[in-house]
Amino acid sequence: MKNIRLYLSIAMVAVICTFGSNCWAQIIKGEVFAGGSVSQVDGDFCYGYHRVNPQVGAGALVPLTNWLDVALEVMYNPKGALKKDSIVYNSSFNGRYDLKLDYVEVPVMFYFTDKGRYTVGLGAAFGRLVGFSEKVHGIESDTRIGDGKLRWKDGIAHEDMDLGYIRNQDDLNNPAFYDSTGQLLIQNSNSYKKNDFSVCADLRIRIWEGLHAQIRYQYSFIPIRTCLYTSNAGGNPIKLQKNNQIALRLTYIFGEDRSKLNKIIQKEERSKK
Question: What are the beta bridge partners of residue 147?
Answer without folding.
Answer: none
